[in-house]
Write a structure and sequence with these properties.
alpha+beta; 3 helices; 140 residues; 8-stranded mixed sheet; globular; 8 strands; single chain
């Protein structure tokens, strides 16, 4: 197999959809998992709250309104696991390569996400039923 035009550097975070972050935040605190703070991502209609477990973060996602993808997800599937995010070294190269391999992209171009990262999502129909996010630290 030829070398890929990008590298997966690590699991960046695991996204968890919830209607109320309080019970989950309390549970994480009970486990001694630090809360790194929250951030509102207005264009995605979501408030994210990051919790740190070694080099992997747990991202708690709360909808800011009923039009939010998170609100729609919870209405359809309930609270719980939402997505798995991989940090890559070259997001644009990853999207171009994955598209050429027949992977269905939700985002064809990177966009701003939580923590100032560039992000893009892959459709679960192409990833074994899991919503996959790719992220890259924005050096701009």
């Amino acid at each position: 197999m030829s070398e890929l035009p990008f590298r997966i550097l690590q699991i960046d975070h695991i996204g968890i959809a919830t209607s109320s972050k309080d019970p989950l935040a309390k549970f994480f605190a009970t486990l001694g998992i630090p809360n790194l703070g929250s951030e509102t991502i207005a264009d995605q209609h979501v408030v994210t709250e990051m919790h740190d477990v070694s080099s992997i973060h747990l991202e708690v996602l709360n909808a800011t309104d009923e039009e939010s993808p998170i609100a729609k997800f919870i209405a359809k599937k309930g609270e719980g696991f939402h997505h798995l995010a991989f940090r890559v070294d070259n997001l644009e190269a990853a999207l171009a390569y994955l598209s050429s391999q027949g992977i269905q992209l939700i985002d064809t171009k990177p966009r701003k996400g939580a923590g100032g990262k560039l992000i893009a999502f892959l459709h679960p129909k192409s990833t074994g039923g899991i919503l996959v996010e790719l992220s890259q630290i924005d050096h701009a």
